[in-house]
Amino acid sequence: MTGQRNIARGGINWRLIGWTVAAALLLMPVLAMQATPEVAWGPGDFAAFALVLGGAGLACEFLMRKAANPSYRAASCVAAGAGLLLLWANAAIGLIGSEGENANLLYFGVLAIAVVGAAIGGFRARRMVHACVAAALGQAAVPVIALSAGWASVEMVGSADVLMVSGGFIALWLVAAALFRKAAQSAQ
């Protein structure tokens, strides 16, 4: 509704841009398959990726409709993007070793923390801060747990790479938390 009013007044249709970006992301593997034989996606791969992209897009739309606050909207997209990237990277290549490494299943716990925390908090900005911080802590804990439990060797993990990638995801969760915090403060 808000997007339609903005278009009528000459504004930007962010929904159209978002779904166009999602469609472009879905086409990237098609282009990569033309360029190199190393990328060989089948129909199941495209279906799974479409499901992940669609889920992230719908989550972003749902959260953006919860408030008109620009900080809340930005936080929603950052959080949905972090979840999408985490799911995609983990399923496609695996963050610890390869995609077949069981330690990677722990990253689904990070997504569960974010989703369940947001739902329990009623998607309110102040409580979304807690859900995103909890997801960041979960993200930090996964490589530590995997190594401590002996589920993955340091050689398999490539500890510097995993720490760098985890640090990037932690940063995304914390940026989302900071934006939700700003939204909560402006609502007071």
Explain what the structure shows:
With 188 residues, the protein is an all-alpha fold. It has a domain at 70-187. The protein contains eight helices and no strands. The protein has helices at 2-8, 14-35, 43-65, 70-92, 106-120, 125-148, 154-157, 159-187. Keywords: Membrane, Transmembrane, Transmembrane helix.
**Low-pLDDT stretches:** 1-8
Task: Give the total of beta strands.
Answer: 0
Q: Kindly provide the radius of gyration, computed on alpha-carbon positions and rounded to a whole number of angstroms.
A: 18 Å
Helix/sheet category: mainly alpha
> Which percent band covers the strand fraction?
under 5%
Count of DSSP H/I helices: 8
The level of helicity is over 70%
Global outline: flat
SSE topology string: HHHHHHHH
* Average of pLDDT: 83
Helices and strands in order, then pairings?
Layout: H1 2-8, H2 14-35, H3 43-65, H4 70-92, H5 106-120, H6 125-148, H7 154-157, H8 159-187
Helix pairs in contact: 2-3, 3-4, 4-5, 4-8, 5-6, 6-8
